Fold this sequence. Notes:
- The protein is α+β, with helices and mostly antiparallel strands.
- 19% of the residues lie in helices and 55% in strands.
- The protein is elongated and about 60 Å long.
Amino acid sequence: LTAIxxxxxxxxxxxxxxxxxxxxxxxxxxRAKSEEKGPQVFAEINPQFFAYDGFGxxxxxxxxxxxxxxxxxxxxxxxxxxxxIFENAKNLDVxxxxxxxxxxxxxxxxxxxxxxxxxxxxxDWYSVTDVPTQKxxxxxxxxxxxxxxxxxxxxxxxxYIDGGYGISFNVSGSDNRVLGGSTYxxxxxxxxxxxxxxxxxxxxxxxx
Length: 208
């Protein structure tokens, strides 16, 4: 009887905890009576690329529940990211992965905080070297990305941290490529995280 009572108590606690998480999410993200923000501009950087002697940055405009902008990045692919993007690429070095991207997000909240979903179109270019033979080639790819993320403002209204996950679809083909002694191919579907830090600024005093 004691074991049954403990089990029922734990089950009830777990259900209450889950209900509490759902209720907090509903109240903070869906039901929240957030004040609608006027048009703002934003600028952000992608710190992970700087760690690999590259760079990534974005700028854009946001209004109502929407955010749209451009991102430009250039970085060397680490073996982990190389293998996430290409099949049979263990003998390849990718010293350059550049991209020009345009994106749009829609937020649950009117103040453009918290959870959002969006889409991104990315035009990527790669420089690839087959290490054993030192043969090189350059080529381009286009991706369409669906993503979800969360935007957190730890200090009032300006500085934010943004991160999430995206599913990227290679819409320009994933045929095999032969380079030196390697036969490799860009993957048709990728799942990659994203991360940015930035700030947003009102266009006019009435937009705050």
